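Saturday, quiet lab. Running sequence design on the structure tokens for the scaffold JK sent over.
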């Protein structure tokens, strides 16, 4: 089958996800972030994921990981990288960064910006590193998100946003391409997403983990609303009913990648609770997610002329997602990277030394 896609990763996110430590960018070494990312890429690949969209990681680490994977130097899924997550001073994911002095660190995962020109500059900084897309997060003013989206689109980059309530209205107005998470929004906002072709990556699984482990959602002082396992499913069903394009993303931060492949299977099961059949959930995980990556012509299905991102699993996931627990083989871009369930790296090939003249 075509390789699975995870549209929402933070490959370099710190292992220890306690609130004081989550965004403590100042403590992050770029080398350490890259090594942590390599480990997460290994977990994704062993779970059948052949493409990840990284929506916020430290410094240049996601770009280094992308290049190393593409060259065959490390086994893992192909990486589509947003670079740093951009938010306002004190915005989502930057609540602790200021206290810890992290926003000044070039290895930070979050970049804060204030004012439209500053948001434009933050987008350009990701573009300069080689970003494949831009990731924004609430909070922001209408003028700020308008500037950021305009700049990204001028540079040919799609924009995804992590937002809620009125910030979703602003994001739709600004013309973003996709919206992450199952956070609250009006029925009008759902209808506008459908009408404007704005995709949703509902990321049900992290909110299940949060509500089960914390008894509620306390992730951000600025995000005050009722959120539980029922409300996230209700929002997902509304999006589905409205005809919004929906893809699979897991947002496994901290040590949650250790829940793979169960976390991926849980998200697929979540999609069936939204009204998708098993086959439709797998289409969302492959073909539709490839379209959200703007790679629909090259990834997501097995067809002549497409890139060969192919996995072999021990069973039929159309009937039982548990088959995804036995990913035996994975090719990424036609290159064997998983063999008998283990990471595979082609052996060193000796080159001849220069001949003596
Ligand atoms: Zn995230």
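Result came back. Writing it out in full:
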């Amino acid at each position: 089958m075509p390789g699975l896609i995870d549209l929402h990763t933070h490959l370099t996110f710190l292992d220890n996800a306690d609130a004081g430590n989550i965004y403590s960018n100042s403590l992050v070494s770029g080398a350490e972030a890259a090594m942590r990312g390599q480990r997460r890429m290994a977990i994704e690949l062993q779970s059948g994921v052949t493409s990840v969209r990284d929506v916020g990681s430290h410094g240049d680490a996601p770009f280094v990981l992308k290049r190393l994977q593409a060259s065959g130097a490390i086994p893992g899924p192909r990486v589509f990288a947003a670079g740093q997550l951009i938010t306002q001073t004190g915005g989502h994911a930057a609540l602790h960064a200021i206290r810890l002095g992290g926003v000044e660190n070039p290895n930070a995962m979050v970049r804060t910006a204030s004012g439209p020109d500053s948001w434009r500059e933050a987008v350009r900084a990701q573009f300069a590193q080689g970003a494949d897309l831009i990731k924004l997060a609430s909070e922001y003013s209408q003028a700020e998100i308008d500037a950021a989206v305009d700049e990204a689109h001028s540079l040919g980059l799609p924009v995804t946003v992590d937002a809620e309530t009125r910030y979703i209205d602003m994001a739709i107005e600004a013309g973003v391409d996709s919206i992450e998470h199952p956070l609250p929004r009006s029925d009008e906002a759902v209808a506008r997403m459908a009408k404007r072709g704005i995709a949703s990556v509902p990321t049900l699984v992290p909110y299940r983990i949060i509500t089960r482990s914390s008894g509620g959602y306390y992730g951000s002082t600025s995000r005050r609303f009722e959120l539980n396992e029922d409300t996230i499913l209700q929002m997902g069903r509304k999006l589905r009913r409205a005809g919004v394009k929906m893809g699979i993303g897991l947002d496994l931060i901290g040590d949650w990648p250790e829940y793979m492949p169960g976390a991926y299977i849980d998200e697929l099961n979540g999609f069936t609770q939204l009204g998708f059949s098993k086959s439709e959930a797998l289409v969302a995980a492959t073909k539709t997610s490839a379209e959200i990556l703007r790679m629909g012509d090259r990834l997501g299905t097995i067809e002549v002329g497409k890139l060969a991102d192919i996995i072999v699993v021990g069973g039929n996931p159309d009937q039982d997602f548990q088959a995804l627990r036995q990913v035996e083989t994975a090719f990424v871009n036609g290159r064997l990277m998983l063999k008998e369930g283990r990471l595979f790296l082609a052996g060193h090939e000796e080159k001849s030394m220069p001949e003596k003249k």
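Notes for JK: The chain has a mean pLDDT of 92. The pocket of zinc ion is lined by residues 8, 10, 55, 251 (CB under 6 Å). Ask whether to fix the surface positions before the next round.
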